[in-house]
Write a structure and sequence with these properties.
Elements (H helix, E strand, L loop, with lengths): L2 H7 L17 H8 L35 H8 L2 H20 L17 H16 L18 H6 L2 H10 L9
InterPro entries: PGBD
Pfam families: DDE_Tnp_1_7
Protein name: PiggyBac transposable element-derived protein 4
Length: 177
């Protein structure tokens, strides 16, 4: 390849360009160093990475009959271990929240009691059902007005408890990342 055309295709880097490993480097400096272009010799291509054959067998590893209940499929992903983990994290988050606040006697947070795995399953069922029975606002699911009434929601869980669980629903502690 012609050396003149190579020089035309190459963009020189700034002599000020240096990689800094210090943790105190500002975000602007990092951005600035990322914007510096450098030349690439296209006549010398790096070899492609090796291809490793896929040896796994894709798909669900559990045998479910065609007549099985949709709940069985749900439980494949949200088993008892996952549900109890979410309940534990939700309770921890609520406890952390309350310990950092001065609560007034009228606050609804005083009504909090730890969520159980069974209660969390009911909560998740209401979340899924809200995707099927759609209403403009969440409060309308618990409305007692005859034209809006969907009594199933209130029979499963009252609105205040649902709102409290929704407020503190948590999947991972900030301190265990």
């Amino acid at each position: 390849m012609n050396s003149d055309s190579e020089e035309d295709n190459l963009i020189e880097t700034s002599s000020e360009y240096e990689l800094s490993s210090s943790e105190d480097e500002s975000e602007d400096e990092s951005l600035e160093s990322a914007r510096n272009w450098f030349g690439v010799d296209v006549s010398v291509l790096t070899p492609a990475p090796p291809k490793f054959p896929f040896t796994g067998y894709p798909g669900i590893k559990v045998s479910l009959r065609q007549s099985d209940d949709p709940l069985d499929y749900f439980c494949l992903f949200f088993d008892d271990e996952v549900i109890s983990f979410i309940a534990k994290e939700t309770n921890s988050f609520a406890e952390e929240h309350f310990s950092n606040l001065e609560l007034t006697p009228s606050t609804r947070a005083l009504q909090w009691k730890d969520v159980t795995s069974e209660e969390l399953k009911r909560f998740i069922s209401l979340l899924i059902l809200q995707g099927i029975v759609q209403k403009p606002t969440e409060k309308w699911f618990w409305s007692k007005r005859p034209i809006l009434c969907t009594p199933f929601f209130g029979n499963v869980m009252n609105e205040k408890r649902y709102s409290l669980i929704m407020k503190f629903l948590h999947f991972q502690s900030r301190f265990r990342r």
